[in-house]
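Changelog note: in this version the structure field was regenerated for every chain. One regenerated record is shown below for reference.
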Amino acid sequence: MDIEQLRSYCLSKPETSEDFPFDEEVLVFRVLGKIYLLTNIMAEELTINLKCDPERAISLREKHEEIKPGYHMNKRHWNTVDCSGDLSADLIRDLVDHSYDMVVKGMPKKQQALLQKR
């Protein structure tokens, strides 16, 4: 998966926006203003930071060398995923979906209801 495929997939998700809140290199994807994915667009290898259930995060790190504790993030709740390795595009999309769902799950019920209507 490359950055354009990733960007297209993220923007297809309901109420997703993108911006560069930190600098000109770190692209952030948000659902209703809450971050669910970060990536450095200037890096040689595509890596993404994704939110993850803590137990699932540990399991994923044990199974895949491309998945590590979140770089510059809360390592209990975030993973850094190397998309240039052997991970399939389907698994990467699944991890993006999981991150998006984790963020939505933490939102107030009113915002969750808004997303369910879409």
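Spot check on this record: Helices lie at 3-11, 54-63, 89-105, 109-116. The mean pLDDT is 94.
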